[in-house]
Design goal:
mainly alpha; globular
Amino acid sequence: MEKLNDVITAIDDFVWGPVMLILLVGTGIFLTIRTRFLTWRNLGYALKSTLSKEARTKSRGEGDVSPFSALTTALAAATQKHVYSKVISNIREVKARGAYVILLSKDKEITDPSICDVHINLPDVSDEFTIFESVVIFQLIAYYTSVGKGLNPDQPRNLAKSVTVE
């Protein structure tokens, strides 16, 4: 098991090292140029529609989420021992700014319940495998959120006709 952990760590260090950083930044620059700086041209509108007083106070229909509220919901997974304290610190920061926090962790009980609004306890498995159970739970949250909003998760919006299958 130790050898497998060393191999996974070596692959992880390579994949998320300087090479990936260069690829991510390069892709961002390429797409920004390719879209003729669309994100920068519309930044003022996006900030205004999200942070203005009107956007926060405007009356909405049942089930609608304001742009401001959409930015203040956080899903957090504190599942790996070597970064656990850092993740909890980040969760505290997000919570202090008023976010609604859903936390996945291997803790049976949280010592400070004020750090999250909902706590989902994960079974205690090896750190390498917690990603699988976390992804399933996040997928279920996405599914039931979609259904709760009255959307059909089997027919996503804004996709080209060639992508959707009927």
